[in-house]
Amino acid sequence: MIQTDRKKHGTGVFPRDARHSATIIFCAKDDRFEKVAEHIGLRTGYFVSTAHDGEEAIWILRKLLSRSTLGRMVLVTEFSLPGRSGVDLCRFVRSQARLSDTSILIVSEEEDPQKCIEGLEAGADDFLREPVSLREIESRIGALLRRSERKEKKGGPWSFDRIEIDGLVVDTTRFEVRLHGTPVHLSHKEFTILALFVSRPGRAVPYDEFLDFVWGEHADRSRENLKVHIHALRKKLAGAAYIEAIRGFGYRMRDTSPAP
After folding, report:
1. CA angle at residue 62 from 58 to 68, to 5 degrees?
2. pTM (global) more than 0.85
3. CA spacing 20 to 30 A to 239: which of 30, 64, 86, 177?
């Protein structure tokens, strides 16, 4: 396990004033993330740990939960691991209230698109398919941390604090969603999509507005990627049938649930 605590601050893809402000956990069945882990630790002063299976990653996460404050956290994991899989790690993180703001990046050799959907539905924020360079992994981590930093400083990009629509409660100050009183655990992108929906109840929202709001100029912005996240969001809303597809245009969220 690598745990780096150096004085040199990061530049470039990482936020400024990084020292001690973030924790990065890498989980892979071999040493494939060792170089990027060491590089990030040396450049930024982040707390960096590596695990070689899901059980070790969960042990690290449980140790971190004993801290009084957690700060920003990113988990980078392979999809396939000995014992607990990357999807199992996602579910563990999303089951812990104090880890709700943790960003998760899955790196996978799987070519089946269903695997990507499975990871996103389990709570991953981003998904990379092999082959992928260590530089790209580093860039994605930096993007996730910048997003977390903006959320900390500005309370997120949302135009409201709390909205309730027919039993669905979205609270941007607490980064919480409840459906008829039951917590709904969402990834950052799913939460952002839902926040855009509820800020425009009953209105049709075009594809491009979602892509601009959620992905900006990121290379992953595509209608297909949006559809994957919408599909995952619908499932997590437990069949509430709030979201409607408008063919050739975008999506709409009903301001009331449809009659049975």
Report:
1. 150
2. no
3. 86
